[in-house]
C-alpha cells in the first residue's frame, strides 16, 4: 500500500480510520437499511397518498371514523401501560443486577436474557394456557378461595398488557443495568462520607444518573409495543384491537392497501415526532446510556 493510498484510509497517527474508510465500512449496513426499511416504507407512504389517485381521503378515514380513532388511542394507551409496568418491574431487577457480583450476578443475568432465546409466539402461547378458564391462574385463585368460579382472563386487555410486559421487560432491564453499572462507586462513597443515608444516596445520586437508561429503555419498549402483533392477536379480543392487527386485517382480508398504508403513515408520523422529542430532551449518547 502506497503512502498516498494509506493516507486516504488512516489518520496521520496511523491508529484511526479516516472518514472515507469509515464510510466504506458502513456502506453495506446503510444499503441493507435502505433496501429492507426505507424503500418499503416509502412505497407504503406513496400508496397512502397516490392510490387510486392523489388524495388525502385515506388519512381522513383514520381521523373521521371513531372506530379507527379508538384503535389508535387504545394502541397508545396499551404501549404506555406496558412501558410503565416495565419501568416499575425492571428497575429493581436492573439495580439488583448492578449491585451483585460473581455467580449470583451471572444467574440473574441468565434469567433476564433467557426469555430472549425463545420466540415471542412461544411465550405468548404459554400465557394463553395460563389465562384459560381451567388454566393455572384460575385454578390457583379458586384453590386459595379468592374466587368460587373461573374468571375471564383470556381475550382481555389485561392479558395483552401482562404478556407484552413479560416479552418486552428485558429491553427495559438491560439499558438501565448498563447505565447503573457505569455510575462510579466513588459517587456513592462520597455521598456516604458526606452523611447521606442509603435512601438519600439512591434518590439524589443513583436515580438521577440512571434516568438516561430509563429513557432509553422506555423508548425501546414503547416503540416496540406500538407495533406489536402476535400477542394482541392471540390474547386480545376484537374489542382490544391494536393498530398492527388492524393493518393486517386491511391487507389480508379487506385488501385495502391504501388505507392500511395510511395507518402505517399515521403511526410513522407519531414515532418520528416521539423520536424528535427524545432527541431534543436527551443527547443521543446519553439516550444510549453513556455517562458524561
UniProtKB/TrEMBL annotation:
Native source organism of the sequence: Microvirga lupini
Example GO BP: transmembrane transport
UniProt keyword Protein transport, yes or no: no
Location(s), subcellular: Cell membrane
GO cellular component, one term: plasma membrane
Residues forming coiled coils: none
The entry's keywords: Cell membrane, Membrane, Transmembrane, Transmembrane helix, Transport
This protein's name: ABC-type spermidine/putrescine transport system permease subunit I
Cross-referenced Gene3D superfamilies: MetI-like (1.10.3720.10)
Family: Belongs to the binding-protein-dependent transport system permease family. CysTW subfamily.
Membrane topology label: Multi-pass membrane protein
Membrane-crossing segments per the record: 20-42, 76-97, 104-126, 159-180, 257-278
Keyword Cell membrane part of the UniProt annotation: yes
Domain called ABC transmembrane type-1: residue spans: 72-278
InterPro entries per the UniProt record, alphabetical: MetI-like, MetI-like_sf
Superkingdom assignment: Bacteria
Amino acid at each position: 500500500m502506497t503512502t498516498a493510498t494509506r493516507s486516504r484510509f488512516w489518520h496521520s497517527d496511523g491508529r484511526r480510520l479516516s472518514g472515507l474508510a469509515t464510510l466504506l465500512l458502513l456502506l453495506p449496513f446503510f444499503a441493507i437499511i435502505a433496501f429492507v426499511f426505507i424503500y418499503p416504507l416509502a412505497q407504503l407512504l406513496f400508496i397512502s397518498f397516490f392510490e387510486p389517485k392523489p388524495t388525502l381521503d385515506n388519512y381522513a378515514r383514520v381521523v373521521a371514523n371513531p372506530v379507527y380513532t379508538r384503535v389508535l388511542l387504545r394502541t397508545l394507551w396499551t404501549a404506555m401501560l406496558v412501558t410503565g409496568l416495565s419501568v416499575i418491574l425492571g428497575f429493581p431487577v436492573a439495580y439488583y443486577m448492578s449491585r451483585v457480583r460473581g455467580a449470583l450476578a451471572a444467574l440473574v443475568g441468565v434469567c433476564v436474557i433467557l426469555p430472549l432465546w425463545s420466540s415471542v409466539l412461544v411465550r405468548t402461547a404459554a400465557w394463553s394456557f395460563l389465562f384459560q378458564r381451567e388454566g393455572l391462574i384460575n385454578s390457583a385463585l379458586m384453590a386459595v378461595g379468592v374466587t368460587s368460579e373461573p374468571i375471564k382472563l383470556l381475550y382481555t386487555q389485561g392479558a395483552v398488557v401482562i404478556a407484552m410486559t413479560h416479552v418486552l421487560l428485558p429491553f427495559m432491564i438491560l439499558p438501565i443495568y448498563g447505565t447503573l453499572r457505569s455510575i462510579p462507586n466513588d459517587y456513592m462513597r462520597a455521598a456516604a462520607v458526606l452523611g447521606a443515608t442509603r435512601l438519600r444516596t439512591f434518590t439524589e445520586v443513583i436515580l438521577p444518573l440512571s434516568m438516561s437508561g430509563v429513557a432509553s429503555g422506555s423508548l425501546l419498549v414503547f416503540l416496540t409495543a406500538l407495533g406489536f402483533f402476535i400477542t394482541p392477536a392471540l390474547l386480545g379480543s376484537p374489542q382490544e384491537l391494536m393498530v398492527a392487527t388492524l393493518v393486517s386485517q386491511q391487507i389480508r382480508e379487506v385488501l385495502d392497501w391504501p388505507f392500511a398504508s395510511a395507518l402505517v403513515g399515521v403511526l410513522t408520523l407519531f414515532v418520528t415526532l416521539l423520536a424528535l422529542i427524545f432527541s431534543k430532551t436527551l443527547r443521543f449518547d446519553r439516550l444510549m446510556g453513556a455517562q458524561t
